[in-house]
Design brief:
The chain is of the alpha+beta class. The protein has 14 helices and 59 strands. The chain folds into 6 domains: 121 residues, no CATH class; 79 residues, Alpha-Beta Plaits, CATH 3.30.70; 423 residues, Peptidase S8/S53 domain (Rossmann fold, 3-Layer(aba) Sandwich), CATH 3.40.50; 85 residues, Immunoglobulin-like, CATH 2.60.40; 82 residues, Immunoglobulins (Immunoglobulin-like); 138 residues, no CATH class. The strands form 19 sheets. It has a 7-stranded parallel beta sheet with strand order 13-14-12-15-17-18-19, with helices on both faces. Strands 33, 35, 36, 38, 39 and 40 form a 6-stranded mixed beta sheet that branches. Strand 41 and strand 42 form a beta hairpin. Helix 12 packs parallel to helix 14.
């Protein structure tokens, strides 16, 4: 009897258990510092209750903002059922939980079969960054008193303008709205913190981003961009980035001859003087055409460059909001960011530096969720050793971006580039590139070198522009997705050290040539996994002679506005890559964040949204499988890219077509060579070779002898320790370059210019070349046997700037590299075109073609960025004229200051004819007149002074403490 009763009890329990909500079986939800299991209040006892019986909090605009949890991830069918019942899922939070919107008309009985277990209101403390909740506000976010500047995100049942109005009703005014991101920048008093956090429509409160700084501490060759740029006549693609628009966020970018025609200044509020020309250096690495110096050519000299500043400027927008406008207004889908916070400024907060610690990681990822084809390239940082740490010195945490580490010219590590891992163990940097001693453009049409991941980043951006150009050509103008470009450069990178990634190089050194070959061979697969779909699988044929196969998987992961605990994985949709070869299954290479210097191991990757598998000596076919381990949204797109390494020795620099001069130092690039490598040079197309260098590894320095003969048949040959030999695929040229090109004379009224340069021996003649800042190339205008040439007036047009260069031509017709150019922008200021009204001069082009400046011997002038408070257009400057410090004019008399012979300046129009004007004409000048000794200024027309509309004839300077911006107005109608 007892046995039967026991059996009945067991059977009864078996019938009841599926309906009983078991709290201990539910997963923990983690929001910031808080961990909890939501109350399991949806089950058989609540199925018949009305929604008002559940504590859902206040409804806003007909909907409740709640946290809901399921027993498992809802399927697509269940999502449709939820929608029909009035539930809209929002951000995934982990633990099978989501933020959600619930209609007030919602009824529980309709939800049978959805496996919903909990619906609870969202508590205010779950929404706050711990630094805000504890009111430990860093100085950069303090506004004054107990007020902090924060980023407030709201749920989608309210608009940003509505939310702004609600804050104003609480006494919080002047919030800056960014509707595209459901974001408000708010000055939040401490006393109102809890009240704001408890507002049901508020989803998250974070601090504003920490102030970011530019990151200073022959990339085309290291990244093999020289191969992509090789002209078609040499078997290349001739890629320049034409048709690609790149956005650069940095310090101000002034016009430079090398990119002025393709520069579009959108923001101009971080002065060049404060950033030491950092933005211009970055611009030249991306887009410089090398017009003034051919050896300073950037990676993508055909791109259109749109420049912005970082941090929040007078427009009140952060970088990601500006990117939205850039995409909408200009079609920019590739952006470059060479700045970031310094880890030394944030040492006390490193144990809190999880996802969105910088307050823009979420926005970076959200932007890609909104626009999957926007690719953002960021400098990893120059903080190696910062806060006493070698590893873990990268502070950025976004998932859907490319991070760049810095190397030296031979691919060696630098002593400044920041190392990973991220707090949750993700791989960073993504890719590495030359960042030490990079030469590029600087103010005043000059060049110079800088070091830092800031210098490596634009080189990667430039290479991505070239790959994007080729993608456009092959795909009818379509933009490549971020996940595709990331998968592409990961699979094709030059691996360093042990197979797989590490926290110093990331996935390796960028190899744009290999990436291009994978793109053109269509060695990639685009796919989508949907809810309920376990996996996708396909096969790839492996060609003969493959030493190692590489397969990468990447996807743009979805985002969550919930608070993320430090160290917890932020990956939401988890895909897995497995590659089978010869019956053996290979898993991705995964690093250990707790032992960051250790080699990677093969295991399931549950933290990165990029994975890489390598297989040595693969079989003839690879079976590639993508598994949906966790899918919280209805579907997830992905890209798989494969690449094959062979044992065939290759040389990638020099590859032919280059123009060298005797004495040049080259960084020779090769692959699949066994050290030590002997480097030899031929002057006669390979008939004879002379040794010039030896080195270990794939890259090394070689110097062309200073007594090298003129030749167009130069070849480089490398022989390794096993006797393997490889040579340049095509010949290159060795020729002297004319030096010291200069302007020796200007004809009367600037009707001609005389050029001169140092003689080059043993040549036949020189070719004189001409270009303008509107062109991308030089045009020959003359040949001469002399090392002097008088340029006729027809080449001295005043429309824009122009430059001249010369090149040497040998007796057999071999042409050498053109010289460093000389620009005539500075010598023909009085030859301007006629000024027509209405006319505004903001000195966006300097020197101005319409306004001349004459200075006395004690005076100097320069152009400085116009202060933002005057609301100038991008690229505007103020003309600064002043006396040199410590020098006084002994001819100056207070009774007649305009008779001074040394400390004077005259500023005027080149050609101003008002005789045809019929209406009233006024001249307005904005500026400030600073003086310590009663200096004066007046307007003269035809030598006669003109009074201002206020009646005064002279403007008298004031001391610097009392100076203010002024407006001076003269009426010129009678002239």
């Amino acid at each position: 009897m007892k046995e039967r009763l026991f059996t009945k009890i067991i059977a009864l329990l078996a019938m009841l258990l599926p309906w009983i909500p078991l709290v201990e079986a539910q997963e923990v939800v983690k929001l910031g510092r808080y961990q909890f299991v939501p109350e399991q209040n949806v089950g058989p006892l609540t199925r018949g209750r009305a929604v008002r019986a559940l504590p859902l909090g206040e409804a806003v605009r007909g909907r409740h903002n709640v946290l809901i949890q399921f027993a498992d991830y809802p399927t697509s069918k269940q999502r449709l059922e939820l929608g029909r019942c009035g539930i809209t899922l929002a951000d995934y939070l982990g633990g099978h939980a989501y933020f959600a919107l619930v209609d007030t008309s919602f009824s529980l009985p309709k939800l049978r079969g959805t496996r919903l277990t909990s619906i609870i209101p969202i508590r205010g403390e779950w929404k706050m960054d711990s630094r805000i909740e504890d009111w430990r506000i860093p100085a950069y976010a303090q506004v004054g008193g107990d007020v902090a500047r924060v980023q407030l995100y709201h749920f989608q049942n309210v608009t940003t303008e509505w939310a702004k109005g609600e804050l104003e009703r609480l006494g919080i005014a002047n919030a800056k709205a960014i509707p595209a991101f459901n974001l408000l920048i708010v000055d939040l008093p401490k006393e109102k913190l809890r009240a704001v956090a408890n507002l049901p429509w508020v989803s998250s409160l974070t601090l504003i981003p920490a102030p970011q700084e530019v990151g200073n501490a022959q990339g085309r060759v290291l990244g093999k961009g020289n191969v992509l740029a090789l002209p078609g006549m040499f078997g290349g693609r001739g890629l320049t980035g034409k048709g690609v628009k790149v956005g650069e966020w940095d310090g101000n970018v002034e016009p430079h001859f090398d990119y002025a025609a393709r520069l579009h200044q959108q923001e101009f509020e971080l002065p060049v003087s404060e950033t030491e020309g950092h933005g211009m250096h970055v611009a030249g690495s991306i887009a410089g055409a090398g017009l003034l110096n051919p050896r300073m050519r950037g990676v993508a000299p055909g791109v259109e460059l749109y420049t912005y500043n970082f941090n929040r400027q007078t427009n009140g927008l952060n970088e990601q909001a500006e990117m939205l406008y850039a995409m909408d207004e200009h079609g920019i889908f590739l952006t470059s960011h060479s700045y970031g916070p310094r880890i030394q400024n944030l040492c006390p907060f490193l144990d809190q530096a999880g996802y969105n610690f910088l307050a823009n990681d979420y926005l970076i990822d959200l932007l890609v969720n909104l626009f999957p084809n926007v690719t953002q390239v960021y400098a990893a940082g120059n903080d190696q050793g910062g806060c006493g740490k070698q590893y873990g010195t990268v502070l950025r945490r976004a998932k859907n971006a490319i991070y760049v580490g810095a190397l030296d010219a031979t691919g060696g590590q630098t002593n400044f580039s920041s190392y990973g891992p991220m707090d949750d163990g993700r791989v960073v940097p993504t890719i590495s590139m030359k960042g030490q001693d990079v030469y590029s453009t600087l103010p005043g049409d000059s060049y110079g070198k800088m070091s830092g991941t800031s210098m490596a980043t634009p080189l990667v951006s430039g290479h991505l522009a070239l790959l994007s150009e080729r993608y456009h050509q092959l795909h009818h103008g379509e933009q490549p997705d971020e996940a595709f470009l990331r998968a592409l450069i990961i699979a094709t990178a030059d691996d360093v050290n042990a197979p797989g990634p590490d926290y110093s190089y990331g996935y390796g050194i960028l190899n744009a040539d290999a990436a291009l070959r994978a793109l053109e061979s269509r060695n990639f697969e685009r796919g989508t996994l949907s809810q309920g779909e376990a996996s996708r699988e396909f096969n790839v044929a492996v060609p003969d002679g493959v030493r190692r196969a590489w397969v990468s998987l990447a996807w743009s992961d979805t985002v969550s506005s919930g608070q993320h605990p430090y160290g917890e994985p932020v990956l939401i949709n988890d895909l897995d890559l497995t590659v089978t070869s010869g019956g053996a299954a290979y898993l991705p290479w995964v690093l250990d964040k707790d032992d960051p210097g250790a080699e990677p191991q093969r295991k399931r990757d549950s933290i990165n949204n990029a994975e890489i598998v390598s297989i040595d000596n693969p079989s003839k076919s690879l079976a590639i499988k993508i598994v949906s381990k966790r899918l919280t949204s209805e579907r997830q797109g992905y890209y798989v890219v494969w690449h094959f390494d062979t044992d065939v020795p290759q040389i990638s620099y020099p590859i032919g077509g280059e123009l060298f001069k005797p004495g040049d130092t080259l960084v020779v690039q090769s692959s699949n060579m066994r050290p030590s490598i002997r480097c030899e040079l031929s002057y006669d197309g390979g008939k004879r070779y002379v040794p010039i260098a030896s080195f270990d590894g794939d890259r090394g320095y070689a110097v062309i002898p200073k007594d090298a003969p003129h030749t167009s048949e130069g070849l480089m040959r490398l022989i390794d320790a096993s006797g393997q030999a490889v040579r340049s695929p095509r010949p290159f040229t060795i020729m002297p370059i004319p030096e010291n090109l200069r302007i020796e004379g200007i004809g009367e009224n600037a009707e001609s210019v005389t050029l001169a340069w140092d003689e080059v021996r043993d040549i036949r003649e020189y070719e004189v070349l001409y270009t303008t800042d509107k062109w991308a190339e030089y045009r020959p205008i003359a040949k001469t046997a002399m090392y002097k040439y008088e340029v006729p007036q027809k080449y001295l047009t005043s429309e824009g700037r122009y430059a001249f260069a010369v090149r040497a031509i040998a007796g057999d017709g071999t042409r050498g590299e053109r010289s460093v150019a000389v620009s005539t922008a500075r010598i023909s200021q009085r030859n301007g075109s006629s000024v027509k009204l209405p006319f505004t001069e903001e000195f966006r082009i300097t020197p101005s073609p319409d306004v001349f400046v004459e200075l006395g011997p004690l005076m100097v002038s320069e152009y400085e960025e116009t202060p933002p408070n005057l609301h100038p257009s991008p690229g505007a400057h103020a003309l600064d004229v002043r006396r040199q410090n410590g020098l006084r004019d002994d001819t100056w008399e207070s009774s007649d200051p305009y008779a001074a012979k040394k400390a004077y300046a005259r500023i005027g129009f080149q050609q101003l004819d008002l005789t045809q004007e019929t209406g009233k004409v006024f001249l307005e000048i904005y500026g400030r007149f600073v003086s310590e000794d009663l200096a004066q200024m007046r307007l003269e027309v035809d030598g006669q002074p003109v009074k201002m509309v206020t009646g005064e004839e002279d403007v008298v300077g004031v001391d610097e403490e009392n100076v203010e911006d002024q407006q001076w107005v003269w009426e010129l109608t009678d002239y």
